[in-house]
Design goal:
Length: about 130
């Protein structure tokens, strides 16, 4: 015997499918999932209080990457410690003055040379006065 399909069930199915489609387009369409990141290691002498994995890395206020890992390396003989902070920079967020394209086209070696030549250094800054 034929049973009439439930309009509520069909509506829920269609709504779920549309939400999945929109979520997939946002997730895969952003280009951040498969974009190549340049990993750099920064060492700080002072406290890293407030710095967390996932914190934004900015250049003059513009977000260009994020913190990926924070470690503490201890030398058991001397008791001295170092704190490497691993950051991932999205080279496609940096463009050359000439307008020829993003810095990612230069390659890692050229990017490192540019950073060293300009004397760029990492520093911690407060993001919000509230926190």
């Amino acid at each position: 015997m034929y049973k009439k399909p439930s309009p509520t069930l069909i509506g829920a199915f269609v709504t779920g499918a549309v939400l999945l489609l929109i979520g997939g387009l946002v997730f895969f369409g952003s280009g951040l999932l498969f974009s190549e990141k340049q990993i750099f290691v920064l060492f700080f002498n002072g406290s890293l209080k407030g710095l967390d994995v996932g914190s934004p890395v900015t250049f003059r206020g513009v977000p260009i990457g994020q913190v990926k890992k924070i470690k503490i390396l201890v030398d058991p003989e001397t008791g001295l410690s170092k704190m490497p902070v691993y950051i991932a920079i999205n080279p496609k967020s940096l463009f050359s003055y000439s307008g020829t394209g993003s810095v990612s086209e230069l390659g890692r070696e050229a990017m490192e040379a540019m950073i060293a030549r300009r004397g760029l250094r990492g520093q911690l800054q407060i993001q919000s006065l509230v926190t």
